[in-house]
Amino acid sequence: MNINASSASSLPIEEKIRYARELFDRGGETLLREPSVTKLLAILDRNIAASQEAMVRFGIVDACRHCEEEEGGSCCGAGIENRYNPILLLMNLLMSRDLPEKRQWENSCFFLGENGCRLKARHILCINYLCLRVQKMLPPNDLIALQTITGEEMDTIFLLHETVKKILNKNIR
């Protein structure tokens, strides 16, 4: 089986999730024994924690929650999930994050739950995007600090994504 995330890009999200679970069943143990993967997973876990802490510290979590609960919607709208590919979803399984079976709210992203995103490893758009309102509320130095922190998370996601894909292509046929 050739692991080509771009060939799965047009699949419905439920199929991408099924594919990610199949990849995990077939290659998860191999990946979790691979030192390069376990090292990147540990780094990513730390980077995600740092990004989340920064989002709380800079008031972004509260601003997004307010928008969702008080103003009738957030940036996590239906369709955002279409940007995800099976490898990125597999990375969540490798991080012991279960993938949802169904969408919680019809007009929201498939992965949006009661407490925000149900995924741990998120798409770059979901990490990097800040609406104009949030951008205006942050002083320039805070915005730069946030972008530096989240940039490390995005770099690690990219490295892990490519490493997982390479190992799967080599070991799963």
Silhouette: globular
Order of helices and strands: HHHHEEHHH
**C-alpha Rg (nearest Å):** 17 Å
Which range best describes the helical content: under 10%, 10-25%, 25-40%, 40-55%, 55-70% or over 70%?
A: 55-70%
Describe this structure as you would to a colleague.
- The protein contains seven helices and two strands, in the order ααααββααα.
- It is an all-alpha fold and 173 residues long.
- It has one domain (5-165).
- The protein has a two-stranded antiparallel ribbon.
- The N and C termini lie close together (4 Å).
Task: Describe the secondary-structure layout.
Blueprint: H1 13-33, H2 35-57, H3 60-70, H4 86-94, E1 112-113, E2 116-117, H5 124-128, H6 132-137, H7 140-171
Antiparallel strand pairs: 1-2
